Amino acid sequence: xxxxxxxxxxxxxxxxxxxxxxxxxxxxxxxxxxxxxxxxxxxxxxxxxxxxxxxxxxxxxxxxxxxxxxxxxxxxxxxxxxxxxxxxxxxxxxxxxxxxxxxxxxxxxx
Amino acid sequence: xxxxxxxxxxxxxxxxxxxxxxxxxxxxxxxxxxxxxxxxxxxxxxxxxxxxxxxxxxxxxxxxxxxxxxxxxxxxxxxxxxxxxxxxxxxxxxxxxxxxxxxxxxxxxxxx
Lengths: 110, 112
Fold this sequence. Notes:
Chain A is built from no helices and 11 strands. By secondary structure, chain A is an all-beta fold.
């Protein structure tokens, strides 16, 4: 099945800094989403982005489907951005499930 | 529009028992997927239902089963619970397969 790799696994930032999270996948996809998991376990939708670029406030994402990667940008980070960020993909082939990466744990320090 | 709801939110069971978890999707959503999250294995797909039919099933033993009702609500059942079944069980709904998924708050199951 499709493989999903996220990097870095851990990231510690000072408040106000910018960061880039990466998601590599091994097959072409028809669905790619970025989520933020809060301390209570809730997965919050950030972007549905199988291709192209989207922006939402301080967050933006780009997926280059032909090169099989997606990037999540966080600008002017805040302590409330802390948590785990997941990339999830669904392969173009077969009736496939959503595969999650292992996540990037972000800690933003005041 | 109300989000995805899951009941119960917390559950403690004993080894060998069975458990049923419930998921109510966003109104109008017909696809429901279930995931298990553990510290060791991360987020793993259990199964997906669309229009009362199971479309996909992940690599889990037959003790894990599910169903979807005509109103799109879904239940999952785990029989003969094992300690390793302790996890956060997450349900997600979408308009249809391969559409954007929205997650519920999860059910945290502890097996003792």
